[in-house]
Design brief:
Layout lengths: L2 H12 L2 E3 L6 E3 L4 H22 L12 H10 L1 H31 L6 H26 L2 H4 L2 H36 L5 H16 L12 H19 L29
Antiparallel strand pairs: 1-2
Helix pairs in contact: 2-4, 2-9, 3-7, 4-5, 5-7, 7-8, 7-9, 8-9
Length: 265
């Protein structure tokens, strides 16, 4: 493939298709992962904004609060809770697509190490946890449920566990599975890859907040820091081998000397 053809293939891939050298036909490359991550984070931030407006600024009540306070929040702010649960559920969908898209892209780049599978597992897990949290939040605000204080607080705890620790742990695996190959094979800037590894470690440590409540500060770090990192990587991750920086040492060797196998057709 000539340099001009390689650049042309790269440009067409960025538009959602990849032109093959042999036939000249365009092969779909999937939606843009950077846009998917931005949409997911945007929907979640919109959920916080709208629910805050509908509840006079009180977006969230800790399930560790007194039962009467938890029940009062869900009973008196039904519209806010409904919007929060709905948009939280919606934000999980592009995140799951992001995991699938980046998994396929890493395979196309020829990465044959556990990283892509780890990132896919973490991304799908995080997406499912966010879906469960959204449904549980929506359910806790239903008038048929708010009459049972014990049930409401149980749902609040489940929504916190799935949307907090469960989601952040999955995000950590998604970030780690992208950061390690990105660092070794230099697909992304070195500083960005190391930032991802730090965020992934903090996200995985968030499970300790189940026993040590002061460590709950790790949850927003993993949630918002991880999503911002995924947005950045989604825009920087090469779409094909022509767009990546490959070493002249020979096929199957990345720019850092790491083993990379040719992508399957």
């Amino acid at each position: 493939m000539t340099e001009q053809a390689a650049r042309g293939g790269s440009r067409s891939a960025r538009g959602g298709t990849q032109r093959t050298a042999a036939t000249g036909r365009r092969r779909p490359t999937g939606p843009h992962p950077g846009v998917l991550a931005a949409v997911s984070l945007g929907l979640f931030l919109l959920a916080l904004l709208l629910s805050g407006m509908l509840s006079d600024g009180k977006v969230f009540v800790s399930p560790f609060s007194a039962t009467d306070d938890v029940v009062a929040f869900y009973r008196d702010n039904r519209a806010a809770v409904t919007v929060l649960g709905m948009l939280q559920f919606g934000s999980a969908v592009p995140l799951g697509i992001y995991a699938a898209t980046t998994y396929a892209r890493q395979l196309r780049l020829g990465i044959r190490v556990p990283g892509p599978a780890i990132s896919f597992f973490g991304g799908v897990g995080a997406s499912l946890m966010l879906m469960f949290s959204g449904m549980l939040t929506w359910l806790a605000g239903r008038p048929e449920v708010t009459g049972d204080p014990g049930l409401v607080q149980a749902l609040a705890f489940l929504a916190f566990l799935t949307g907090g620790v469960g989601f952040v742990t999955g995000i950590g695996l998604l970030v780690a599975g992208l950061a390690v190959p990105g660092l070794v094979l230099k697909f992304v800037p070195r500083w960005l890859a190391w930032t991802g590894l730090v965020l992934a470690a903090l996200s995985e440590l968030s499970f300790l907040s189940l026993g040590v409540e002061p460590l709950q500060f790790l949850l927003p770090i993993g949630r918002f820091g991880g999503m911002l990192w995924l947005i950045a990587v989604g825009f920087l991750l090469p779409v094909n081998r022509a767009a990546a920086s490959w070493s002249p040492a020979g096929p199957g060797v990345g720019s850092s000397g790491g083993a990379v196998q040719p992508p399957t057709p």
